[in-house]
Amino acid sequence: MVSSDGIIVPKTPAEAYSAYKTVNSAVLVAGSQSLKRQQAHYTLAIDLKQTGLNYIEDRGDEIAIGAMTTMAELEASPLLRTLAGGVIPASLKEWSDKELKRQATLGGLLASKPHFSVLIPLLLSLTVDVVLQDKGRMGLNDYLYCPPMGEMITEVVIAREFIYTAYTACRTQPGQIPYLVGAVSLQEDRWKIVVGGRPGLAMLAENASAELTDKGLAARENVAHMVSEELEFGNYGTCSENERRQLTIDMVRSLIKKAWKGYSRQNSQGTKK
After folding, report:
1. Which end of the chain is least crowded, N or C, by CB within 10 Å?
2. What sequence ranges are listed for the domain Molybdopterin dehydrogenase FAD-binding (predicted)?
3. Is residue 73 a part of any domain in this protein?
4. pLDDT per residue over 73-107, tens digit each?
């Protein structure tokens, strides 16, 4: 459990980040459950619960989500149910720990960058930017793979595109941490294929995605094999590297078909967001 000599509850993101930069040993408390599993002591804990970062806003071409918005609020959001086939709320329904859903925040999740997250691969399949206090806005993929730079997430922005995402989380039993996660999205003729639980951080299979975008469904089988070869996999838990590679082929093949069907159905219904 993380401990500290003192705690403050700032009223604004600027106040919180100023304190974070000023104190050499400080931690931002943003609902991240990973802090409960750490054994560390800080001079100052900065609780972000009163910084006004709890919101989900319709900004026309974008949906803006405050960093302190909880998983439960994401699941219940009518706006997110209209995005990408409602994949974000659908994935959160699988969280069996209701108390965790009420406490864990989007900003906390992204800051901790968990390797077995289901939500991060889904977000990578969309067009998502992360807004950092005093540092501006950057793409989610760049943020995830950027070395730590003393950042504080204030907002996550998702483009409201005509897009559909299919996903799967492979688990031994319901409620367990997945040993493999896949997300495939289709926007017009542009495909994205993301794999998480490799067990590394979720990653976009760029070459395979470009191949599928260029050649379409006819290349599905070849693309599924490309993903298993393009990305790195490892041994972890009950699933070996070779098992993950083989499972990825079947998973991607199925998700491509599912994404195509979902996009076609969405298109025929005239659902533009």
Report:
1. N
2. 7-158
3. yes
4. 999 999 999 999 999 999 999 888 889 999 999 99
Buried b / exposed e over 109-142, threshold 16 CB at 10 Å, is: bbbbebbbbbbbbbbbbbbbbbbbbeeeeeebbe
Dihedrals phi, psi of 152, to nearest 5 degrees: -135, 115
Model pTM score: 0.92
Instruction: Say if residues 3 and 41 touch (Cβ distance below 8 Å).
Output: yes
Distance of alpha carbon 44 from alpha carbon 147, whole angstroms: 23
With respect to residue 232, please indicate whether it lies within any of the assigned structural domains. yes
In the structure encoding, which two tokens stand for residue 178, read together?
Answer: 């997945």
**What domain range includes position 130?**
56-159
Residue 23 lies inside a defined structural domain of this protein: yes
Nearest 5°: CA angle at 206, between 84 and 170? 60
